[in-house]
Amino acid sequence: MGWTGLGQWAFVLAAFGGVVLGVWQIDRQRRGKPVSRAAILAILVSAVWGLLQAAVGPAHPAALIADVARNLAWLLVVYALFARDGRHETVSPVRPVLVVLAAVELLQLVLMVLTWRFAAIAPALAMIFQIGVMLRLLVITGALVLVHNLYAGAMTAQRAAVRWTCAALAVIWGYDLNFYTIAYLVRGMPAELVALRALAALVGIALLGVGVMREQASGRFSPSRTVAFQSLSLLVIGGYMLVMVGVAQSIAWLGGSATMLTQLGFVFASSVLVLALLPSGRLRGWLNVMLSKHFFQHRYDYRAEWLRFNATIGGAGAPSGNAAPLHTRVIQAVADITDSARGALLVPADGGELVLAARWQWPTLDVPAQALGLAGAAFFERQGFIVDLDEVRSGVDHQGEARATPAWMIAEEAIWALVPLLHFDRLVGLVVLGRPAVARKLDWEDFDLLRVVGHQLASYIAENNGQVALLEASRFDEFNRRMAFVMHDIKNLASQLGLLARNAQRHADNPEFRKDMLVTLSNSADKLNALIARLSRYGTGNVDQVAPVDAVAVARGLAARWPASAAMPAAPVVVTVHGPCTILANRETLEQVLAHLVQNAIDASPAGRAVLVEVRSDGLHGCIDVVDTGSGMSAEFVRSALFKPFVSTKPGGFGIGAFEARELVRAMRGRLDVESREGLGSRFSVRLPLAVTATLSHPHSQQDVA
């Protein structure tokens, strides 16, 4: 074969490796992996260079132009590697050196023109050759210096990223340095060195391939399915061509009169063999399984499947507010994986049996009221087994799924598979898949993917169920809260009516008492009616419109509700007034708040001790203070427990009085302040805007004044 033939084969192999590596890098870039575009360009240019070297020889103008393009492309890769960690900004000589080296390399094109111009003059050609070699040595030397600085000056964390590319460039340009040195000395290019140059290029491509393999997290070749099969076809075709050419060339070297006949016979026999094997379904199936398990990382394109899954379950692409319900999207997400055109979802009922929850493109499926009994639901919850109904119909029973599958599913030939949805070992659903247009047998990778997707969908369903339960509990909580407020107000009214009934036994003959009793009964009835009218307002914080209210009159009217008795000869509520005080408030709401505060003060005070109600003005606000001499409260209790709903220190108390009082005062644009000392007592201050200054503090308040 000789050195020339060896060089041609090596150049072809290097070109083939460059094409495969370039296509692979392009596919990795399409899938979002970090890939250098400069490296892709340099690899593909090197592949073209190798093909031209093998086809037309190293001295041809096309091969020389490709040599220039290859060196320029690899210089661009060097700059891209410097720019990878920002050192092209701090190492200022990098760009000028690269520009100079590129300019010197472009001088080779000028020398090509001179070679063509002085082709008939041998001394001129010799001189041009020597100048060209010297320029190449200059470019290669500068490039190797840059490669050395690139690797030596890289940070430790960055060296692993540039190691293999630097090694490949060192091999390619290191050999070229020796190649052109010897060419300068011998004034020519020996065929042996040209062949070895092809081998150096092949080694460089191999090193780049190893670097790409090391950059991947899994360390395995994992292109997309389309590009992978295209690359496989290219590899098979290329290998076939190499074998054909090699055998034909070997036969030609044998010589003799039968050479042409032997070549034709070999081509005919090879073609017949290929045509006989390719249509074989058994061979194709075996090849597909072997490639799926051993050559490719996965049969599925998991990135594409995951993106489609998220788009389906998230309702992407559907108009706003028109996305299908969650249960329907769950069915579609599973059906898309197996190419099923329809499906249904069964979910547990209150009794534990499974019932139909949703359909997807399957209106004709006849599902019983109890789609799957307790025994079947327990099987799927315990085993998590994905059932292939075709296997069950054929008599295959792996883990008892034949007994767990109901008869109506087995009888319905359109049902293809059952996929359980498990969340923390609890069955939250069962997807019933319809038969796809092209039915196939589910394999190990289908089961793995469906199992993972089932767990993910189960979490979505469980979260949705939790949100529904939380919303329902919130509604019940709101209802209970309203009822608690109502019961608290009714309790206060019942206390007043009970006190009135006890006093009536002793003062029924007193005309004044009967007059006051009628007023009290009338007020109680009005309050009950107002309570009923206010039920719809609880939770909103709204009150009726405010109006100027005489705080002194309210305080004195409030004190009259607790008259002196035999147990307490002195009045239990004492009113102190520090001047007129007209405030903006809702009178009924204010009386409700003060009645609660006074009653609490009486309950907290020792027997025989009066409660003080003090009316005063404080700047822009009117204040009504309710003061007791009880045991008082700690600062911690006031801060964290006093106004917390449903927390009470009274036996049988509801724990909402203080909370309700504060919210009602806030609704009237006021504030409820508390001062308390343990062992001394407490002061509750209701602060509301004065009527005369309301315009200054709340300019919009005049619109609310009745």
From TrEMBL:
<dbReference type="InterPro" id="IPR029016">
    <property type="entry name" value="GAF-like_dom_sf"/>
</dbReference>
<dbReference type="InterPro" id="IPR005467">
    <property type="entry name" value="His_kinase_dom"/>
</dbReference>
<feature type="transmembrane region" description="Helical">
    <location>
        <begin position="6"/>
        <end position="26"/>
    </location>
</feature>
<dbReference type="GO" id="GO:0004673">
    <property type="term" value="F:protein histidine kinase activity"/>
</dbReference>
<keyword id="KW-0418">Kinase</keyword>
<protein>
    <recommendedName>
        <fullName>histidine kinase</fullName>
        <ecNumber>2.7.13.3</ecNumber>
    </recommendedName>
</protein>
<feature type="transmembrane region" description="Helical">
    <location>
        <begin position="234"/>
        <end position="254"/>
    </location>
</feature>
<feature type="domain" description="Histidine kinase">
    <location>
        <begin position="485"/>
        <end position="692"/>
    </location>
</feature>
<dbReference type="Pfam" id="PF02518">
    <property type="entry name" value="HATPase_c"/>
</dbReference>
<dbReference type="InterPro" id="IPR004358">
    <property type="entry name" value="Sig_transdc_His_kin-like_C"/>
</dbReference>
<dbReference type="InterPro" id="IPR014265">
    <property type="entry name" value="XrtA/PrsK"/>
</dbReference>
<dbReference type="Pfam" id="PF01590">
    <property type="entry name" value="GAF"/>
</dbReference>
<feature type="transmembrane region" description="Helical">
    <location>
        <begin position="260"/>
        <end position="278"/>
    </location>
</feature>
<dbReference type="InterPro" id="IPR003594">
    <property type="entry name" value="HATPase_dom"/>
</dbReference>
<feature type="transmembrane region" description="Helical">
    <location>
        <begin position="62"/>
        <end position="82"/>
    </location>
</feature>
<keyword id="KW-0812">Transmembrane</keyword>
<feature type="transmembrane region" description="Helical">
    <location>
        <begin position="38"/>
        <end position="56"/>
    </location>
</feature>
<keyword id="KW-0808">Transferase</keyword>
<feature type="transmembrane region" description="Helical">
    <location>
        <begin position="160"/>
        <end position="182"/>
    </location>
</feature>
<keyword id="KW-1133">Transmembrane helix</keyword>
<dbReference type="InterPro" id="IPR003018">
    <property type="entry name" value="GAF"/>
</dbReference>
<keyword id="KW-0472">Membrane</keyword>
<feature type="transmembrane region" description="Helical">
    <location>
        <begin position="94"/>
        <end position="118"/>
    </location>
</feature>
<dbReference type="InterPro" id="IPR036890">
    <property type="entry name" value="HATPase_C_sf"/>
</dbReference>
<keyword id="KW-0597">Phosphoprotein</keyword>
<feature type="transmembrane region" description="Helical">
    <location>
        <begin position="124"/>
        <end position="148"/>
    </location>
</feature>
<feature type="transmembrane region" description="Helical">
    <location>
        <begin position="194"/>
        <end position="213"/>
    </location>
</feature>
